[in-house]
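[SOLVED] Predicted holo structure with zinc ion

Edit: marking solved, answer below. Original request kept for reference. I posted the sequence and ligand SMILES and asked for the 3D complex as structure tokens.
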Amino acid sequence: MTDETQTRAKAGAMIVPVTPFEQNCTIIWCEATRKAVVIDPGGDVPRILAAIKQADVTVEKIWLTHGHIDHVGGAADLRDALKVPIEGPHQADGFMLDHVVDSGARFGMTGVRDFKTDRFLEEGDQVEIGELTFDILHCPGHSPGSVVYFSKELRFAHVGDVLFAGSVGRTDLPGGSHATLIRSIKEKLLSLGDDVGFICGHGAGSSIGQERMTNPFITGEL
Ligand SMILES: [Zn+2]
Ligand SMILES: [Zn+2]
């Protein structure tokens, strides 16, 4: 059995684009237990609930990559609907969770609520869903409290808005820093290995190797 087949057998994923920002709300599950996590429920909670039903999995946790409205706007409602804890982001994004309503007003998103996470995450923490374990990498720059969820076993990461296929996260929002973002990517993500595939917060996913070789923000062309 190749590693790839093994990976496919161990976990499943479904992307549900939510909010006017087409944010990749992601359901990831452990195939052995059918236990699942919803990453970044930014909004459109009824659509997320329908996708969970379609995947036929049991959601036990909500994970947040960072505090931006398009990633957290539906977190409070989804937590109420599923009665599950919210983990993440890093504490440095805590102030954003206290101002979800204000932020929603600025970006034209109504029906959102401020909330508290059940657990802030730090570099080196581990989180689990079923039999899957993910390491937490604190990757500031796009936002001060952005975290990446990395499964060594699956050779897979969910990178939020830190890194995109052919691009990187914007850094013009509060607490953003382009230099810090590029340092996070080079120091924490490139070292994960070229074979690591990732899902990101917007658009198509990619792999670390593909981005290391062709992403102009990493190769130095931009
Ligand atoms: Zn963002
Ligand atoms: Zn985003």
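OP edit: Residues 21, 23, 68, 70-71, 161, 201-202 surround zinc ion (ligand 2) (CB under 6 Å). Thanks to everyone who chimed in.
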